[in-house]
Each structure stands twice: as C-alpha cells, then as structure tokens.
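Q: I'm building a small set of examples for a reading group on sequence design. Run inverse folding on the following structure and report the sequence directly after it, with nothing in between.
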C-alpha cells in the first residue's frame, strides 16, 4: 500500500504485508537505533509497527514471525514524535510544533503539561513522569527527526538554529 504508514491499517485492510518482524526482533535488542534510508523506504511504517509492538497490540501480530517470540505481558509506554506534518521555515515554527507535540503527549499519558518550560526540559520531564507513572522504561520513537533542518537548507542560519534546538531536545 503506497502512502499508508499505519501498521494496523495495513494488517486489518486488504493489503499485502511482507513480514519483516524477524528483523524487528533483532532491532529491539539494541538500546539506540538510528535508521537512515531513502524516501519511501518504510521508515514511518516501521516506527508505527514498533509502537504497536511495544504497546502490546498482540492481535495485530497474529500470524507474523514475532507473534510467539514477544513477551506480550510486558507493555511499554511509548512517546512517539513525528515531525513530518509541518514545514519548518523558521525556528519559531519548530518551537511551536515541539510544544504542540509535547502538549499532546502529556495529555495522551494523562500528565499535566507545564506551559512555561523550554522544549528540552519539557521533553525530559515528560520522559521522567511517564516512566514514574507506568513503572516501566519508556520507548521513544522519533520519525522525520531531521525535517526541520532539511526544510530550510538554503537558509543556513535557520538550519543551524533548528539543529541547535533539536540537539538540545534529542540530547535528553
């Protein structure tokens, strides 16, 4: 399915899905993973598949390689950030988008959002609060992590400012 990046839509729809969960099983054993692949290579679908896996959506994986190899009794809280849906032509747009995404993530996990906190502090706070709330390690998935830099490559100073801001957030 071209353009569908939601694992559940593909599994529950009338589509062909090539089972690559054997590779996902190996991938999740690593602590940090950075995937750099060309456009239309399935990175966003993989991120969504990982989210479903860590959240324990067992029914979606029935008949797939990983189904009887995954510990479905352990569910992990997931923080997923997707920076693909906005055009970032200045750093203010990036700041606004990060705050908007963080506010949504706080709400999703039922944690009060503190508006006056810088994005990197807010992200660090979110991770700590989610970990405390669920008593479990937190899975962090970031899709299109570099879009705020790529969008303004011809504006070098803006690209550098966006990179600096993202570095402060991602270093958390």
């Amino acid at each position: 399915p071209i353009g569908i990046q939601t694992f559940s839509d593909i599994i529950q729809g009338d589509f062909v899905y090539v089972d690559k969960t054997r590779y996902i099983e190996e991938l999740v054993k690593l602590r940090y993973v950075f995937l750099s692949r060309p456009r239309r290579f399935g990175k966003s679908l993989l991120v969504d598949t990982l989210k479903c896996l860590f959240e324990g959506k067992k029914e979606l994986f029935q008949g797939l390689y990983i189904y009887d190899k995954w510990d479905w009794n352990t569910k992990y809280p997931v923080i997923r950030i997707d920076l693909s849906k906005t055009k970032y032509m200045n750093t203010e747009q990036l700041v606004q988008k990060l705050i908007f995404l963080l506010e949504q993530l706080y709400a999703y996990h039922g944690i009060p959002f503190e508006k006056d906190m810088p994005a990197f502090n807010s992200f660090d706070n979110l991770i700590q609060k989610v970990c405390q709330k669920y008593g479990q390690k937190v899975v962090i998935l970031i899709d299109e992590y570099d879009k705020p830099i790529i969008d303004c490559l011809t504006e070098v100073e803006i690209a550098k400012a966006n990179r600096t801001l993202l570095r402060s957030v991602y270093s958390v």
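Strands lie at 78-82, 139-143.
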